[in-house]
Amino acid sequence: VHYITLQTGGLAIPHSRAEDTGTYTCIAENTAGETKQKLTLTVQVPPVIQAADSQFVVSVGDHVSLPCVTVGSPTPEISWTRDRRHIDPRDPKYIIGSDGSITIQNINAGDTGSYVCTAENVAGTDSQSRLLRVQVPPEIVTPPRDRELTINSNFQMNCAARGVPTPAITWMLNGRPLATPPSLNGVSTITVRNAMKEDAGEYTCVAINPANDQQVTAHAKVIIKVPPVMIVPPGDWAVRIAEKVVLDCSVGGDPAPEILWTKNSRPVELNDRIQKLNNGSLVIYDLTSSDAATYKCIAINDAGTSEAQSIVTVKSEPKFKIEPSDALVEVGQTVMFDCVAEGVPTPTMYWWQDTVEIVSGGRVTVLANNSLRIVATQQGDAGLYRCFASNPLGKTFVETYLNVVVHGEYSSWGDWTPCSSSCGWGDRSRHRTCDKPAPQNGGKDCVGPSVEHSTCMTELCPVHGNWSPWNIWDDCSQTCGGGQRRRSRTCSNPPPRGSGQPCMGSGEEIELCNSHGCPVNGTFTDWSEWSLCSKTCGAGTKQRFRECRQPVNGGRRCVGDNTEVMECNLVSCYTLPLTAEGNVIGYINKVDIADSTIVAQMIPTERGFTRVEATVRNVPPAAANYLQHLISLLTPVYWTTAHELDGAFNGYTLTNGEFLREVQVEFATGEVLKMSHYANGVDSKGTLLFDIIIRGEVPDLGDIKNVHLAPYQEKYIQTGPGTVYAQSSRMLNVDGYSLPYAWNHTITYDETRGRMPYLVQQLSTRDLSVELLSEQHSVRYVLEASIGPGSPSNRCPEGFKHDAQESFCRDDDECATQNPCSHSCHNSAGSFSCSCPIGFLLMSDAWTCQDIDECSKRGTDCGPAMECLNTLGSFRCINSCSRGFEREKNGENCVDINECEESLNSCEHTCQNLVGSYRCSCLPGFRLEEKGRCSDTNECELPNSPCSHECSNTRGSYKCSCPSGYQLLNGRVCRDINECFEGGSNCRKDEECINNEGSFHCVQLCPPGFKRTESGRCQDIDECSSRLHRCYYNQRCINTEGAYRCDCPAGFTSRGPGQPCIDRDECSEEALLCQHNCTNTKGSYVCTCPPGYRLDTDSYSCTDINECVEEHINCGSEKMCFNQRGSYSCIDIPCPTDYARDPTTNFCVLECVNPHIPCPPGAKYADVIEFRTIALPGGNPARQDLIRLTAYNQHDEYLKQTMFTVIQNDLELEFHLRVEEGRGIVYTLEPLKDSSTYRITVRARSYDNYRRHIQYQTTFIIHISVSAFPY
């Protein structure tokens, strides 16, 4: 109910609303009449500012209207503030409309801020903020610079722009956009590594932001110079004298390189005979032997140098440099004949003795330097020796003679004369002659006597022998029961000599010893037979006995027991099931088996086996043959009831007849058959119940007449709780043919039944037979089975590893641990198998795959003109090889047949192998005839005679001669004798000799550095262009009047002309090139800065990187990013209790909103905590002003009457304050330490002009960091 009428007649409105405003009429009436009174109700409504956009974005120069539509009663008064400062409506920049909106004219960057509209009436106030962001058009502050560099260099193009929002910078190259990373904070850098020629051109930096969609550009040019590159380098040449050679030197580069030539590292002197072509190639006419050298083509431009060399070899006929001399040596000495020849090509050297060529061997050796060495010279070595030198231009030889001096040598000694005495000592002699050999060629006579004397003895004079004393007795041969001992003496006191008599008597004596009796130890008799077992089953005992025979002569008594007890009849006394029934379903060789059954009887035998007789009934006729050899269908029967030996468990003892058995049969012919046996326990009649599911393939052996199943064994291995693995290898004989096959089984049962008593048990079978009952559609099996401990029973078989903790045999994954197969490995329980991909065959080792050679096995069916090529795992048909080609070994390519090597008689002189053929050629001076034969060419009759004057033909060559006044060069060209050079001129010292054809004349000399012109004037020699300078190849030759100088490129220096230009280390030669670190580079240097700094645009200074801004560091709440020089840190800026965080300044303010907070009169804040940071360079001295603190009130007015106090100083260093004009200046009395941080707290209290009352308080928390570097 909105209106309530009171008992007094009044009207109550519990919750007034704006629509309740109006005139209300109170009417009172009774039977006597009525009366009325009107009342006016005015409901005052607090102002509400309608919601509008909270953010406005404009550009510089625009105008904007910020809405402030307000409702309220009475009409609210509207006021605006900007960043907490009141906006004067009289300011022409601002227009406040009747609806409360404010329009800002002629926007500039400083108008960005938070504008707050406040509506106020007597009922309340409301305010809303409008954030104005002013966009400033972009302005490029750091334009890119022009660059000039060499190809493959690295360079950067930097561009920085400012504006609001931060401009995005893109790049263009030659008017085409470049893909560059996004700019960061208005800065963009292009880094070009390994600059190519296409990287040159005009780079344009484009800065754009949304401010009126304006963009500005800045341009810079990049010139990339290309160092010289040899396009066609000069090759090596081997030419004859008087021929011409052209050394090519085609060079590319930008700018065009200058080409220089050197000969053996010295500049080439150009003249009429040696000329340089316009393309840089060097031409040498009329070659002489002095032209043989190493030539270098050197290309130079501003970007670098490049060079290539050519070795010019001038062919010449052999000439001897060292000739052997005649030698006279003694027999036995070593003689050496030196023989050295020169010529181009290098001559072939060899030796003759008389008319026979010498072959190295034994005492005679031709050394590597062609010297002839004869070791232990003999008389037969004397004679004439010839040293030959031969090359294609000629052959020559030199002779020497060897004489051997022979000294006399004695013959062997003759026989000795008879001794002068018949016994005892006498004399004798012997003789020799000096004729083996006799002295010859001035040799010396024999050295030594020709007669030799010595003493002799025919026999000793007689002495009779006498015995020495007896030696001591040897040990007795027995310790008891009678033995012997011996002693001896020798006939040596003295021994008999000559014809003296020997000693009389024996040299050995024997006597008896230790005749007392030997002790005999007591021994046991043989064991008696075992007694009967105390139990017939369930583990009884049996005994046997023996007696001890007593010892004699102190022997030892018997050691051991007289009685031995052994367990017996360990077989459990339980009763095995004697019958079994089961079902067989599935398929075999695609023949379905639907409703076959198995009926079996199990009969214990006295021979320790259980006999199993079983019949498979209702067998499909098509499957009957396949079941004849599958006697392991009965596995769930004979394993369950096998006779137990030595404590082993059969399947019934282990599982109580309840288990699942998975079986896999693998035949040697590749077929695989799988079966699942489900044993369901024993029914109330004692019948074992089971089901068999069969599926897979067996060998199709046709009509089987006779099947023989060999006995087999199965190993049962405990692989885990309730799991047993079994395996066996078996042999099947069908109609005389044997077929091996393997079975493996995995049995699972209730693990609470326990485990086998042994790790490994072995089941053995015997008396196996099978009978096919065709008329009854049945197959009958018979076998006997027993089970006992494995051999060994306590060790896991190969392929398993023992789990000692749980005492199981775990499968060993050979594929993972051994990687035995060459291709694919398949692990299985206790074993593994290998397989091969298509095109490969598994080898007999069952591990290795070998490629199948389809070409040899299948023959070639590739068709005509094609061959079969075997490949790894396959084969291909390829084209046959053409004539002159053959197939390369183990390859598919046809390779050329080298007829020159395979048929040595193809050519008479030189054979050159060609692709698919060969070519014969003849030595110089011969011409090629039919069948590769060569005949002499008469060079003198050729149209172009090889001789400049007179020519005489010789076999294979020719001989040239010259008239008087000329000199024959290299056997072909007649050259005028240069009297000026070779001597014979009579010019004075101040004159120059000029050679003429056949004569000469003298002219006045020019000063050094000048040459005479045809007019007779002396003209400056341009040593640089004429290549007469001595500048090193990387020096630049500058011609001067009468001389020249050698300069180096910028950044290089040299010790003078002819010395190489080496890099100048500007960093060590000049100080203060870089503010931090200077690194020398080839031809220049580069400045680098420490981490946290970047190199400034002046390439000298290091500028701190503001990580807080550039990396947008977010330190989290109650923290602030403090940018330090070279680094940054996050500092705590918590606000104390009752303080609030100012969202604009991030200061902590204590607002005067609580009467308990002591606030100065008229102040908005009782305290303001400002956080100040200052990052200083290193090297700050003592008493240096560090920071000036100024206090402002909430109206941003400077408070001059302010006192400053350090209320918390740094723990490491004391900071001090002084006040100047109301500002607090922080300083220290000690130097600041580099790489340090400090923290102080300063309180500023501002007073009125009479310094009586505090008007404002500010607390400054100051963080100071000092860099490790002075910048």
TrEMBL record:
Q: Give residue ranges for domain Nidogen G2 beta-barrel.
A: 576-797
Is Transcription regulation among the key words of this record?
no
Domain EGF-like residues, every copy? 811-850, 896-935, 936-975, 1020-1058, 1063-1099
Signal keyword on record:
yes
Q: Which residues form a coiled coil?
A: none
Q: Which residues cross the membrane?
A: none
One of this protein's GO BP terms? Answer: homophilic cell adhesion via plasma membrane adhesion molecules
What GO CC annotations are associated with the protein?
axon; plasma membrane
Q: Which PROSITE patterns match?
A: ASX_HYDROXYL, EGF_2, EGF_3, EGF_CA, IG_LIKE, NIDOGEN_G2, TSP1
Chief subcellular site? membrane
Q: Domain Ig-like: where?
A: 1-42, 46-133, 138-217, 227-313, 318-405
In terms of InterPro entries, this protein maps to:
cEGF (IPR026823), EGF (IPR000742), EGF-like_Ca-bd_dom (IPR001881), EGF-type_Asp/Asn_hydroxyl_site (IPR000152), EGF_Ca-bd_CS (IPR018097), G2_nidogen/fibulin_G2F (IPR006605), GFP (IPR009017), Growth_fac_rcpt_cys_sf (IPR009030)
SMART domains recorded for this chain? Answer: EGF, EGF_CA, G2F, IG, IGc2, TSP1
Q: Supply one GO molecular-function term.
A: calcium ion binding
Q: What is this protein called?
A: Hemicentin-1
Traced from the root, the source organism's taxonomic lineage reads:
Eukaryota, Metazoa, Spiralia, Lophotrochozoa, Mollusca
